[in-house]
Amino acid sequence: LYKITTDQDGQISESELYRAVDGLDPKYRESILAVYVDGLTQKAAAEKLGITLWTLRWRINRGIIDLKSKFEVKG
Fold first, then answer.
1. Distance between CA atoms of residues 32 and 39, nearest Å
2. Looking at the predicted structure, is the pLDDT value of residue 68 above 50?
3. Which of 2, 25, 48, 68 would suit a FRET pair with 19, their CA atoms being 20 to 30 Å apart?
4. pLDDT of amino acid 39
5. Each residue of 16-61: pLDDT tens digit?
6. Distances in Å between the alpha carbon of 26 and those of 7, 9, 33, 46?
7. Helix/strand/coil (H/E/C) assignment for every residue in the chain
8. At residue 69, does pLDDT exceed 90?
């Protein structure tokens, strides 16, 4: 496990963000990318991936939790 570094303004570099996303479980990564990068609606993404809408939402939430665990949180 690695921790993502931030610049003086607390911003994460795009390359580090992509590296963190690449490190996700593939089912979480593909769900997140379909919605947040490809711009599909959740319904369209679920259909594209051949999963239920509920499953897509669960995978996105779980992926976000995993991403958050890679960031150092202060306070």
1. 10
2. yes
3. 48
4. 95
5. 888 889 999 999 999 999 999 999 999 999 999 999 999 999 999 9
6. 28, 31, 10, 15
7. CCCECECCCCCECHHHHHHHHHCCCHHHHHHHHHHHCCCCCHHHHHHHHCCCHHHHHHHHHHHHHHHHHCECCCC
8. no
Tokens of residue 28, six digits: 């979480």
Structure tokens at 47: 């259909």
Separation of alpha carbons 64 and 28, rounded Å: 8
Instruction: State how far the Cα of 17 lies from the Cα of 55, in Å rounded to an integer.
Output: 24
What phi-psi label fits residue 10: left (phi over 0), alpha (psi between -120 and 50 degrees) or beta?
left
Burial per residue of 61-71, b for 16 or more beta-carbon CB atoms within 10 angstroms, e otherwise: ebbeebbeebe
